[in-house]
């Protein structure tokens, strides 16, 4: 019941899934807030949420309870999987580890796609093992269906595609059943791939590709078919089958390691600004390790799985291979420093290995009774006796068992304290953001219901807009404001960008932006008054909802600038408290006035100001960069806070930015109050 003691947050990505699920069951189709087809992520999780809405309605509390109850399947499925793979005792301990120490027990986020993905994965793995044991064709096909659903839940699941071949090599799954498994994957995924191409002319996981790429794929496929036919006629497959039969384990590990390396390189190549530095180490220590109370013994579980595999246990080898196949996802999560819920599957497999170690250690320890303790009691043992004692592993096993028990006791205490603190903080209601829907969002929703006529279009920035659109239940038309973003490292979050335009804006700009971000590679992202007004006219929107723009400088700082320009008037404003009273994010409803905007300073974060100065020094030279910045931004620069700039040197960077602005303009322009 500790799983249900937290007040669950509904962050923007959870609202994204809720709104898409509502669109599906409402007959709108799988479309985003704009009404455009959603081709980035598969529809399985939103469809699952939509199905629950059909049963329970749109009440957030009921939906959150249903999804969390569904997540309770994870310890049960892990128990069934490990029982079939390793044994009953290992399965019971693994399930207990996952239930008490797993991320699901402490993370407060509702509608967690990764917990749902873990359920799909454990069920898929269990179906594969059951199909292997029973030689069942329909279970083989069903396991393929489940893997296809995994891929359409989260595209990174494609890393486990070789699982069936590994099962054939290590566990003796027949070729017919393996082919049925992959037929099931194709049956589920092919309609989605065709639909994605039909609505967007893009290839799932690859994005937009030129037409000749498809011709190339067809040509390569035809050549592959001819090569396979020729190989069959020459008896190559028969010889290959004989080789595989004699070298099953070697071939399995070549496949697992080779696939993992290729998948890792492919996935890391898609990461912008790939680097491992001090920030990566902090993420590993402060988030991954802190969120895993048994992290210090999990490596021992991995070593134990390797040792058992070397000793010849194919079941252990299969479990180890299952973990290795997730390495590409782990690497991406590490270098991108994304939420620790991305580690749920790896954590579950790690706990399974650790359970085997905890079960094996006492068995080793029990052998101590067979050792002749009289040798020790007679006095100082001889050198040969010491060597015999140590080589028997009994002393080491005894020490290891004691250490493991102490680690488990310590980890249990840490996790209990975390859970207790979470319950206490929620009971005290110290953090109103950690409620199912933020009160400020509900306040804005109620104001919209009472003051904006039905059918009106509201243009909104990303943060909280999906929550509001979901709560609005189609009373109004919602559109998302998208920027034309610079591509490459340090670019704006994709959730805030137009996906059809990924080009670097012209520099120097032809119009003066009222907001600008400059990354460290001199790629600007800018918004001008004309951009915003043109977007509103295109969407026939009279209202503009300003919220925090995901990942970059807060767009709530736009509100005073937009009001001061005279082009917009403030209709209503409410605040979201994040942690402390000083850290407030505003939700502001503005209405366009039709007046021409006045000239105002450009809003920039400290990091952007520093990058701008460095970029202009390189572009025009040290002696001309001040004049160049004055000509580009003639009305000055408003320095605004950056929610991501929370490092230890942030104050120093802000001081440096102030000095740069004062050296260029001779003064530091002061922004109007947020409440103005």
From TrEMBL:
It is a multi-pass membrane protein. Keywords: Cell membrane, Glycosyltransferase, Membrane, Transferase, Transmembrane, Transmembrane helix. One of its GO terms (cellular component) is plasma membrane. One of its GO terms (molecular function) is pentosyltransferase activity. Pfam families: PMT_2 (PF13231). It is found in: Cell membrane. Residues 41-195 form the Glycosyltransferase RgtA/B/C/D-like domain. It comes from the Bacteria. The chain crosses the membrane at residues 63-82, 91-109, 144-173, 179-199, 211-232, 252-272, 293-310, 316-336, 348-366, 386-410. GO terms for biological process: lipopolysaccharide biosynthetic process. Signal peptide: none annotated. This is 4-amino-4-deoxy-L-arabinose transferase-like protein glycosyltransferase of PMT family. It comes from Thermobaculum terrenum (strain ATCC BAA-798 / CCMEE 7001 / YNP1).
